[in-house]
Amino acid sequence: MTREIAVVAFAQTDHRRSTEESSEVEMLMPVLHEVLDRTGLKTADIGFTCSGSSDYLAGRAFSFTLALDGVGAWPPISESHVEMDGAWALYEAWTKLLTGDADTALVYSYGKCSPGSVRDVLTRQLDPYYVAPLWPDAVALAALQAQALIDAGDTDEPALAAVGARSRADAAANPHAQLAGRVPQGDYVVRPLRTGDCPPIGDGAAAVVLAAGERARELCERPAWIRGIDHRIEAHALGVRDLTDSPSTRLAAEKAGAFEGPVDTAELHAPFSAQEVVLRKALRLGDGVRVNPSGGALAAHPVMAAGLIRIGEAAARIHRGESDRALAHATSGPCLQQNLVAVLEGDPR
Amino acid sequence: MSKEPVAVVGIGQTKHVAARRDVSIAGLVREAALRALQDAELTWADVDAVVIGKAPDFFEGVMMPELYLADALGAVGKPMLRVHTAGSVGGSTALVAANLVAARVHGTVLTLAFEKQSESNAMWGLSLPIPFQQPLLAGAGGFFAPHVRAYMRRSGAPDTVGSLVAYKDRRNALKNPCAHLHEHDITLEKVQASPMLWDPIRYSETCPSSDGACAMVLTDRAGAARAPRPPAWMLGGAMRSEPTLFAGKDFVSPQAGKDCAADVYRQAGIADPRRDIDAVEMYVPFSWYEPMWLENLGFAEEGEGWKLTESGVTELDGDLPVNMSGGVLSTNPIGASGMIRFAEAALQVRGLAGEHQVDGARKVLGHAYGGGSQFFSMWLVGSQPPGS
Questions:
Q1: pLDDT class of B107 with cuts at 50, 70, 90
Q2: What residues does the Thiolase C-terminal domain cover (chain B) (predicted)?
Q3: Looking at B178, B199, B226, which one is the last position of a domain?
Q4: Residues of chain A neighbouring B374 (CB-CB closer than 8 A)
Q5: Complex ipTM above 0.95?
Q6: CATH assignment, A118-198+224-344
Q7: Are residues B103 and B221 in the same domain?
Q8: Are residues B179 and B243 in the same domain?
Q9: Shortest Cα distance, chain B CAs vs residue A87, angstroms
Q10: Is residue B130 part of a domain?
Q11: Do B58 and B115 belong together in one domain?
Q12: How confident is the model at residue B128, as a pLDDT?
């Protein structure tokens, strides 16, 4: 008998182009307080804490060690950190709760893109000997993927523009979004991608509380049960991948049980409009599925938190009774190299 | 809720050296991974997931290197997690991997940690200025030296103890073919005559800067039953964190370290660590941390740790051998150093530690710490499965 584990609370910052006036800890603390307040828990009540972030955004080693001070880590806490998007921190916490070693977990992540040029910074993710020295940036690589999709007849520029327009229109109802409402498709950044096909550069943080079994029901009126969660990685070299497809997403979805029943909502971590096309196909999402009602990553993209926010947004819809079975997706690496899929369900109404 | 018992069935390390100019980062990690698979007599296809750890990405200048390393580690199509908890990361990485098995999410997991320090400059990586924060002052030694001094004052330890630890660890390293420093002509006098770097820490009481990787294959009960060589069983494992800087912190014996050890002992049913544990691989980057951690881990009363060291208890043939492998003082690929401690503990209870094997080692502790004594991770492994 495996344990039932649920997302019981979610909080995020307002995502902004720049938060020069505050440190990472200052950006994070209100979110941590908010998510704990929602459950009535205090730091000392939490069984396990796990965070996700990247030193490269802060531009210095061990940047996460200071963020821990914002949690209030005294007396000492059981804690861990992944140098990945917070969605993977949630995965580690989920594993920990499955072992029975803890009943509750606090998961948080944050990213400040404003201190540097995130396009340049992300090139440092690439093969350090053969690719990174050429500085191909994240938009250029995403443009390769978009062009491959257009060449394959999977999409065209007007369809991509529609993805951007829908995302930003939906974001109008999201008070945390950075870009919302009518946003023009704009000029080309790297052909065929225009500004409207690309995520805004921004700063932000997010936090989630997980709980197991009865504890989840005590802490949340309608817990978002994690029915399955899985993640898979693909080869790094773009030359050996079919950029029009995402086999890792499909496999993760299969292992998470996404195809065992219809979902009504999908929060997809697709920083570029064309990536939504790839993900919709891999996840077999029909037109009846509400995709990115939050506005998705095209409306706000704090790197390292954007994936965790997808899980949080999907769970929050279940908490509010707006969804019964939702899919959440997070990605990492260039052109959707690594993908995580979670299936969340509310109790039957 | 019962956990699946976790067994270590494969261990692989590189020969640690100052600079592995003959291999890329991918080549380095693959070497350790292949050796671990070879030990377990398994292939890449038998691995369900990969959990990788290293210390700051700035050390090699590669952001989130797990993305680039997916191909080299046979992870394509599999789940891959990347852990980073500062210096304790090697231990934490092993524990995250172990939890995947314990939770029955996966049957067999490859876990690996590495550092290729020659690709960059660790001193620089550790010394970037942070606004409104106390600087770390020329790497780690400058930060830790005052805490060593505080220990000496509190315990009344004679100032010869640090060199005894270094002399012992460097001699132990001569028996470990993977160790970085093989100082065949080492003498106690040479250690004591080495230059003072951060008073009271001398050059020879300081860890080297190494390139290296360490890998382990962790598996469930069924996997252990198929293993060709004796497995090491995880009897307990825990992580604890506390802030690096706050007024109430005890830098000499941090509460997080005590709590972490207590949790491991509770899980493993250890009532008296001094009696029940046969040997320890502990994270000692500066020699004085041996007596300090002996107290923090409950092997000695407060202020008494140095007496164990001085009386030879922690020697390879002593009653409680510490750092049989030569320890961090002889080999320090930072991100891998914690996992090496965990792996060496497992080698001991498997009886496969070669020349630095402790006779009859049945329960051995692996210990790692990181940050400004902020993060702790430990595991206790045994030659028999839990509950037996």
A1: very high
A2: 243-372
A3: B226
A4: 65, 68
A5: yes
A6: 3.40.47.10
A7: yes
A8: yes
A9: 11
A10: no
A11: yes
A12: 67
What residues have CB less than 8 Å from B104, skipping those under 6 apart?
A2, A98, B4, B220
Note whether B304 and B348 are same-domain residues. Answer: yes
Cβ neighbours of A221 (radius 10 Å):
11
pLDDT band at A189 (very low <50, low <70, confident <90, very high): very high
CB contact under 8 A, A233 and B241: no
A66 contact residues in B (CB cutoff 8 A): 130, 133, 244
Please state the φ and ψ torsions of residue B56, each to the nearest 5 degrees: -50, 140
> Is-same-fold flag (A5-117+200-219; A118-198+224-344)?
yes
Domain count, chain B: 2
Residue B144 and residue B116 share a domain: no
- Residue B132 has a pLDDT of 59
- Could you count the other beta carbons within 10 Å of the beta carbon of residue B124? 12
**A5-117+200-219 to CATH, choices 3.40.47.10, 3.40.50.300, 3.20.20.140, 3.40.605.10:** 3.40.47.10
- What's the confidence (pLDDT) of residue A183? 80
Distance from CA of A113 to the nearest CA of B (A): 14
At which of B159, B194, B226 does a domain end?
B226
A60 reaches B (C-beta below 8 A)? yes
Quick one: pLDDT band at residue B249, thresholds 50, 70, 90? Answer: very high
| B133 found inside a domain | no
> What local confidence, expressed as pLDDT, does residue B118 receive?
94
pLDDT band at residue B263 under the 50/70/90 scheme:
very high
Query: Quick one: tokens of B283?
Result: 């994270």
Task: For residue B194, count CB atoms less than 10 angstroms from its CB and return exposed for 0-12, middle for 13-18, buried for 19 or more.
Answer: middle
Per-residue tokens: A3: 């344990």
Domain containing residue B254: CATH number: 3.40.47.10
Percent of chain A clearing pLDDT 70 (strictly above)? 100
- Residue partners of B123: CB distance under 8 A and separation at least 6: B138, B139
pLDDT score at B224:
98
pLDDT at B387 (0 to 100): 87
In a domain, residue B131? The reply is no
CB distance A65–B86 less than 8 Å? yes
Alpha carbons B68 and B63: distance in angstroms, whole number: 9
> B240 and A79: CB-CB below 8 Å?
yes
Residue B238 touches chain A, beta carbons under 8 Å: yes
A to B CB pairs, distance under 8 Å: 192
Maximum C-alpha span of chain B: 57
Inter-residue contact A10 to A39 (CB < 8 Å): no
Q: Tell me the backbone φ, ψ of residue B75, rounded to 5 degrees.
A: -90, -10
- Cβ atoms of B144 and B286 within 8 Å: the answer is yes
pLDDT digits (tens, 9 = 90+) for A134-169: 999 999 999 999 999 999 999 999 999 999 999 999
Query: Chain B contact for A230, CB < 8 A?
Result: yes
In chain B, what residues touch A101 (CB-CB under 8 Å)? 3, 99
User: Does B5 touch chain A if contact means CB atoms closer than 8 Å?
Assistant: no
Q: Is residue B87 part of a domain?
A: yes
Residue B10: give the domain boundaries.
6-120+210-226
- B43 and B183 within one domain: no
- Say yes or no: B157 and B255 in one domain: yes
Is the Cβ–Cβ distance between B130 and B137 less than 8 Å? Answer: no
Q: Min CA distance, B45 vs chain A (Å)?
A: 15
What is the torsion angle, in degrees rounded to the nearest 10, for the CA atoms of residue B326, residue B330, residue B335 and residue B338? 20
Question: What pLDDT does residue A271 have?
Answer: 98
**How would residue A7 be classed by pLDDT, with cut points 50, 70 and 90?**
very high
- Residue A255, pLDDT above cutoff 90: yes
- Tell me the domain boundaries of chain A: 5-117+200-219, 118-198+224-344
- The reply to whether B89 and B160 lie within a common domain is no
B141–chain A nearest CA distance, Å: 16
A contact residues 63-82, partner B, Cβ 8 Å cutoff = 64-66, 68-69, 73-82
**Total-model pTM:** 0.98
Q: What is the DSSP letter of B206?
A: B
